[in-house]
Amino acid sequence: MYTDKTMTCRECGASFIFTAGEQEFYASKGFTHEPARCPSCRAARNRGGGNVASATGGYGGGYERREREMHSVTCANCGKEALVPFLPRGDRPVYCSECFEQQRTGGAYAGGGRGNW
């Protein structure tokens, strides 16, 4: 069976326990490698914080999320300017947030077919 293991985090150097329960979970998921980071460093990495050492000029690696490019359009329903996170193709109507929500929920502007935001 599994027994608790004391391990050292490769990012911050802290000791942490890889519990028997965690080992069993890893095995049930088919994971073949033990964790190399402590729970705090894993959580920071999952939140998008990259690795802990990078804040102090260490390691590097990871990636940075790019700012989403927004495109200005004129709402096909009300004529207001709207920003959308995609490049409109021109063959389908594009709506501002308010009109899109009305389209989606079947409000006053709901018509047949699928609307674009």
Oligomer: single chain
As residue ranges, the low-confidence spans are: 51-58
Q: What share of the residues lie within helices?
A: 25-40%
User: Could you give the order of strands across the largest sheet?
Assistant: 1-2
Strand content: 5-15%
The count of β-strands is 4
Helix tally? Answer: 3
What is the 3D form? elongated
Question: Could you name the key traits of this structure?
Answer:
3 helices, 26% helix, 14% strand, alpha+beta
Entry summary:
The chain is an alpha+beta fold and 117 residues long. It contains 3 helices and 4 strands; from the N terminus they run ββααββα.
What's the arrangement of secondary structure elements?
Elements: E1 5-8, E2 15-18, H1 20-29, H2 39-49, E3 71-74, E4 81-84, H3 97-105
Antiparallel strand pairs: 1-2, 3-4
Structure in words:
The structure is a single chain. The protein has 117 residues and is α+β, with helices and mostly antiparallel strands. Helices cover 26% and strands 14% of the residues. It is built from three helices and four strands, in the order ββααββα. The protein has helices at 20-29, 39-49, 97-105; strands spanning 5-8, 15-18, 71-74, 81-84. The strands form two sheets. Strands 1-2 form a two-stranded antiparallel ribbon. Strands 3-4 form a two-stranded antiparallel sheet. The longest helix has 11 residues, at 39-49. The chain is elongated, with a radius of gyration of 24 Å. The termini are far apart. The model is unreliable at 51-58 (pLDDT under 50).
